[in-house]
Amino acid sequence: MKLAPFAAVAAFSLIATACASRPDEVPVVQEERTETVVDTRETGPVPGSLADFEQNAGDRVFFGLDRFDLDNASRETLRRQAAWLAQYPGTRILIAGNADERGTREYNLALGARRANSVRDFLVSQGVDASRISTVSYGKERPSCTQSTESCWAQNRNGITVITSGAVS
Predict the structure, then answer these.
(1) What angle do CA 33, 35, 39 make, to 5 degrees?
(2) Which parts of the chain fold into alpha helices (H)?
(3) I need a surface site. Which of 22, 101, 118, 133 has the fewest CB within 10 A?
């Protein structure tokens, strides 16, 4: 029993020594750095999507009054469409021919059909397989603009290319 107080003091000394930090030991604190990277590049549409087609190729061409021949601007748009379609060979399209509100329903349906066929023929001449292209005439039935003004009528005299299948979503 005489050793009990000595054993208690020795145990306490060992515990106190183990818990004490030495003056030459400096605790190291690891700093965690987090950097937020912000992408400042503009993101465009997904390649192969409908938005990509509309932005990079253009989805419509315009015609003069009672005309179905293609002007230089229309041919350039159709060249871009053909190039885009060459990149995505599984894509199928519908070309809708449209007319302004003037004239009879029958006349405008026939004119819309000639406009759609003119667009189709040009795309085929640029290497697009004709089996990928469908055409329809809406005549004056689906106007883009509903005002009865020359600028509005000019917008409605068009051929619109619509992707029907094969686009990336």
Answers:
(1) 170
(2) 4-19, 50-56, 72-87, 105-125, 150-156
(3) 22
